[in-house]
Amino acid sequence: MNQMSKLLIKGGRVIDPSQHIDKVADLLIEDGRVKAIGNDLTADDAEVFDAGGLVVAPGFIDLHVHLREPGQEYKETIATGAAAAVAGGFTAICAMPNTRPVNDNASLTRYMVSKAQEAGLARVYPIGAITRGSEGTELAEMADLKAAGAVAVSDDGRPVMNSQVMRHAMEYARDHGLVVVDHCQDTQLSAGGVMNEGRISTLLGLKGISRAAEESHIARDIMLSELTGARVHIAHLSTAGAIELVRRAKARGLPVTCEITPHHFALTDAAVVGFDTNTKMNPPLRTEEDCMALIEAARDGLVDAIATDHAPHHEDEKMLEYDQAPFGVIGLETALGVALTVLHHANGVALARVVEMLTAGPARAFDLAGGTLAVGAVADVTVFDPQREWTVEPQQFKSKSHNTPFGGWRLRGQVVATFVAGSEVFRGP
Amino acid sequence: MAFNRKDLLGIRELSVEEITTILDTATSFKEINERPIKKVPTLRGKTVINFFFESSTRTRTSFEIAAKRLSADSINISASTSSVTKGETLADTARNLQAMAPDAIVIRHPSPGVPYQLARLIDASIINGGDGAHEHPTQALLDAFTIREQKGRISGLRVAIIGDIRHSRVARSNTHLLTKLGAQVRIAGPRPLIPPDYESIVEDSSDALMVCNRIEAAIEGADVVMMLRIQRERMSEAFFPSLKEYSIQYGLTLKRLELAAKDAIVMHPGPMNRGVEISSDVADSNRSLILEQVHNGVAVRMAILFLLIGAEGE
Asked: In chain B, which residues have their Cβ closer than 8 Å to the Cβ of A323?
């Protein structure tokens, strides 16, 4: 559909947590923007999409992906990452700066933005580095990064260990209106670790990453947020203790937000038995108790966003010794299915709550446009079937890489169609 | 035959019946090693590759002799580096090995799990010769063989395992095996060298497995005292203060051995650091079965090769 035409999505269950809407209704899109939500809407010469039995939601937003371009295009490119995104219902994705070279300057950010425009499909929002080269010593040119299109700053994967540097980064970021995103991990405490520290790591003889390595760093960041007034977003919480720390910070009114990933609430470290390197990611898969804490935090509203930490790696890189293989799994094309299967169907988390963590929640965390179907808003829309069952076949993914721990899983909930600014960018089977 | 596996990867997966089958088979093979002509034609025409990514004298030689006494052709390949440093994937390593059409591959590797990963990719029988800090099943089997031969049983025995448990595949495999066969295992060592939740790694951990704060508590009344090698480089990683303090706090001396049962035996998987984890007067005493362990290793590995690739096993 071109920008001048009309699209009428008829008879779906419209769930838009940004407006507290959850009802069967029609959605009319005109010139790429939401025109109306209502019953029995009609529009002359509108293209009609029958959404009977389906959920119509704002386009999903993923705050945490790795697109590998520039530098490691054999794993993923901005174009293949964007294609994977829309196949998973994501109309906007935030790209972490650990490309090669690191996205620590405006020209690289502009390059990524222009590559994303060429690719079309999903909106790609770069996240700039906190420090030059993500080396943890000198601040990156954050204001310049923001002017070029960066929506937040992070040294994801190489957390800033020097607390004074982090303090200065937060102070500077606050004044420039940037959220500081942190992969919280005391890298000295976790040195050499490749999986959760506990019974299973002891059993397998693999070096563990303790909960304390994550939680102590989160506690530090929360204290620094209080000290500096900066907005801090804690990436991929993986432990019950991490949830409690964020809960206390939020209760005290600190500007702290957080995300959880599908693999951290769907899998435990027991999955590592057998040494499948697609169970290796950082932070690592934890225990049943941690999964339950994540699920409860998803249910009760603590969690702002479900993010994928989509981390593509080539098959040859993953087919190594467990302790030598790279960390990371992909997640864009399984996020909705896993979230609905585990959170909604298995644990009774309300559908609107799951949608919120994929839409309004992440939009608020980074002050992004989108995540809403308010009249006049840009019409990024995801239509999904919450009941349809499907089997995960990694070879069918749009992503260049296939490193998922969910291969062969039977999931309930699938994307049917994805629209960006009213244009159909993906149509499912 | 109570043994019907393609591979021997770890003790954890084995049933009591399978373990007993290996030990019983080893008993019959031990006799061959006492003969003037120590060779039988059992595995004639079979090829066994010893593929070692870590230096090893004892285990590699033991497997080589075991294969040769059964008339198998035995080839040693040493690689000093992991796949990743060579730029080769594990899958390619596997394909290359497969292409040589061996019947069994004994693999030792510093990374836990490599034998498991290769076993999924290779038709030949994989024998774990030690994978990182994970498992060393043939060592545990030869230890159990030695204990059983000496004590006539394993069930009901109290076995102390002392030292660097964190980095020890021998400790893990022995813990699994001895508790499966009904022994009580007591662990002691500097706490940083005992990995978290160790007492929960076996299925029934009620009384079968305990971690002691002091070496004396582990040794008291023990029927078997098994000392593990302490590696010098652990000191630089701040796991314990010094070798001197280690030997005072955790070393096995004749005086400490008096705490054990009167007829207690002393074992060590080697190589020993005399004067560090074990004093020379203990190592050389008549309580020490350290050389008997090495001797029995050949018979146990003959049994394993026979059960995996011998005619009846096919």
From this structure: 111-112, 132
SS3 breakdown of chain B: % helix, strand, coil, rounded to 5?
A: 40, 15, 40
Closest to A88 in 3D by CA, of A423, A296, A392, A370: A392
Closest CA in chain A for residue B168: A205
Residues in A whose CB is inside 8 Å of some CB of B read 197-199, 201-206, 208, 210, 274-275, 316, 319-324
Nearest to B89 among A198, A316, A323 (CB): A316
Secondary structure of residue B294 in the 3-state scheme? helix
Dihedral in degrees, nearest 10, Cα atoms B119, B124, B125, B129: -70
pTM above 0.90, yes or no: yes
Option in B84, B116, B200 nearest A199 (CB): B200
Q: What does the alpha-carbon distance between residue B16 and residue B222 come to, in Å, rounded to a whole number? A: 23
What total number of domains does chain B contain? Answer: 2
What is the DSSP secondary structure assignment for residue B229, as one 8-state letter?
Answer: P
Q: Which of B90, B131, B169 sits opposite A320 (nearest CB)?
A: B90
Give residue-wise pLDDT tens across range B83-102: 656 677 878 888 888 899 99
The CATH number given to whatever domain includes residue B64 is: 3.40.50.1370
CATH no. of A60-366: 3.20.20.140
* Rounded alpha-carbon distances, angstroms, from residue A253 to A202, A226, A227, A229: 39, 10, 13, 11
Distance (Å, rounded) from C-alpha A134 to C-alpha A104?
A: 8
Same domain? For B145 and B278 the reply is yes
CATH class (in words) of the domain with range A6-56+378-394+404-427: mainly beta
Residue A3 is predicted with a pLDDT of 45
pLDDT of residue B93: 82
Residues B308, B200 share a domain? no
- The ranges assigned to domains in chain A are 6-56+378-394+404-427, 60-366
Residue A130 has pLDDT above 90, yes or no: yes
DSSP state string for B250-279 = H-B-HHHHTTS-TT-EEE--S---BTTTB-
Which of B11, B82, B84 is the mutation pick for testing A, counting most A CBs within 10 A? Answer: B84
Are A206 and B132 inside 8 Å of each other by CB? yes
In contact, B64 and B121? CB cutoff 8 Å: no
Q: Are residues B142 and B284 in the same domain?
A: yes
What 3-state class would DSSP assign to B48?
strand
Question: Based on the domain organization, do B47 and B123 belong to the same domain?
Answer: yes
Taking the CA of residue A324 and the nearest CA in chain B, the distance in Å comes to 7
**In a 10 Å sphere around its CB, with 0-12 CB exposed, 13-18 middle and 19+ buried, how is residue B36 labelled?**
exposed
Task: Tell me: do B71 and B195 sit in the same domain.
Answer: no
**Residue B56, domain extent:** 16-136+294-313
- Do A405 and A391 contact (CB within 8 A), yes or no? no
Shared domain for B154 and B280, answered yes or no, is yes
Whether B29 and B115 share a structural domain: yes
ipTM (interface pTM): 0.94
Contact B196 A205 (CB under 8 A): no
Shared domain check, B54 and B151: no
Give residues with Cβ within 8 angstroms of A399, minimum separation 6: A76, A80, A81, A83, A84, A310, A312, A330, A332, A333
Token readout for A418 is: 């994805």
At B297, is the secondary structure helix, strand, or coil? helix
Who contacts A223 (Cβ-Cβ below 8 Å, separation ≥6)? none
Q: Are A67 and A81 within 8 A, CB to CB?
A: yes
- pLDDT tens digits, one per residue of B158-185: 999 999 999 999 999 999 999 999 999 9
Adjacency order of strands within the sheet including A232-234: A152-154, A179-182, A232-234, A256-260, A305-306
Q: Could you count the other beta carbons within 10 Å of the beta carbon of residue A30?
A: 18
Residue of B nearest to A210 (CA): B196
